[in-house]
Write a structure and sequence with these properties.
Blueprint lengths: L6 H26 L6 H40 L3 H12 L2 H9 L12 E6 L2 E4 L5 H23 L6 H23 L14 H14 L1 H4 L15 E2 L5 H10 L15 H15 L13 E2 L2 H7 L17
Antiparallel strand pairs: 1-2, 3-4
Helix pairs in contact: 1-2, 2-3, 7-10, 9-10
């Protein structure tokens, strides 16, 4: 009698594992409810106990198989089949790892294929009852082992994060990524949706940006210099917030004004444009530069929410900023 498969081992191990799995699930649930502060320790003790039990079952299975082998040899000798008994005894003396390798590399030679040939054929093609490639079987058994470990790790013992927990972690990571993107690229404000800001905090930020980047060309009070005058009601590229945002963002390279889109964030452009329109426009400071462009009432444009079309500046020779 031989045990040629692992059916007995699987059934016996399953019977032993069932109460362990139930206890592990109950322990994990109690730990989630805050009833056991030593849940992690208990989980690892359960894992250790399960491993010990599986090893014990393997040893028992090995001993049982050896006993059956000895019984088979003795039965063959009693029946006078000494040669067969010696063959089995010789196989038992071969190291287990060599027997395992022989099983994994046991391919039927071509001259013996008739022994594993099925009777049927399809269009002259006959089928062999051959063994699967050893590498394929090895991968198959590895996937089974991985599935068992995965099941215990994530589902029964709850050590690994569950699908709900992983979802929450990914959502937090996504929120952090969005916050980092907004911090680096702004909040999505552009020349199509920008609005005029009149809050003192926003205007203070706009004033800081203006004093840092715009004073050199447009003057401390918006009176103009290298660039045009911001304090009057004459504008070259329109006086609406969207017009001014676009001019600052893309610049006027042919007139010497830089494109600030790579140096200022969109919300900074929005705030400095709002500062110009709210705080500088209409102040008419001394030493203001002569008007340029076309008349455009920035206050009225802001109240109506519509900007006037910018004038054609193809003939303008002033340098703007």
């Amino acid at each position: 009698m031989k045990i040629k498969n692992w059916t007995f081992f699987g059934i016996f191990t399953g019977l032993l594992a069932s109460p362990i799995v139930s206890f592990a699930q109950e322990t994990a649930n109690n730990g989630e409810a805050g009833l056991d502060s030593n849940t992690d320790l208990v989980k690892w003790l359960i894992i250790t106990a399960a491993v010990i039990i599986i090893i014990a079952v393997l040893a028992l299975f090995k001993v049982l198989n050896s006993m059956l082998k000895l019984q088979e040899i003795e039965a063959l000798r009693q029946m006078g089949m000494e040669e067969a008994a010696q063959k089995i005894a010789a196989e038992r003396r071969i190291p287990w790892w060599r027997r395992l390798m022989e099983r994994w590399t046991d391919a039927v030679p071509v001259e013996q294929e008739k022994d594993v040939l099925f009777d049927h054929d399809f269009d002259g093609i006959q089928e062999l009852d051959n063994k699967l490639p050893p590498w394929w079987l090895a991968l198959f058994y590895v996937t089974i082992g991985f599935a068992v470990v995965y099941m215990f790790y994530y589902h029964f013992l709850g050590i690994g994060p569950g699908s709900q927990e992983m979802y929450q972690q990914e959502m937090k990571q996504a929120e952090m990524a969005i916050a980092e993107y907004k911090a680096a690229h702004g909040t999505g404000v552009d020349e199509t949706n920008v609005t005029l800001l009149d809050g003192e905090t926003d205007l203070a930020v706009g004033q800081t940006v203006y004093q840092t980047h715009c004073v050199a060309c447009h003057g401390t009070q918006g009176e103009g210099g290298i660039g045009p005058n911001f304090a009057d009601n004459y504008w070259i590229h329109g006086c609406d917030i969207k017009d001014l945002f676009k001019t600052i963002k893309f610049g006027v390279p042919e007139k010497g004004m830089l494109a600030w889109k790579d140096q200022l964030k969109p919300e900074e452009i929005q705030k400095v444009a709002s500062f110009i329109l709210v705080k500088l426009n209409g102040t008419n400071p001394p030493n203001a530069k002569n008007p340029q462009g076309e008349p455009c009432d920035a206050k009225a444009a802001a109240e109506s929410g519509e900007g006037e079309e910018p004038a054609d500046t193809s003939s303008t020779t002033e340098v703007e900023n």
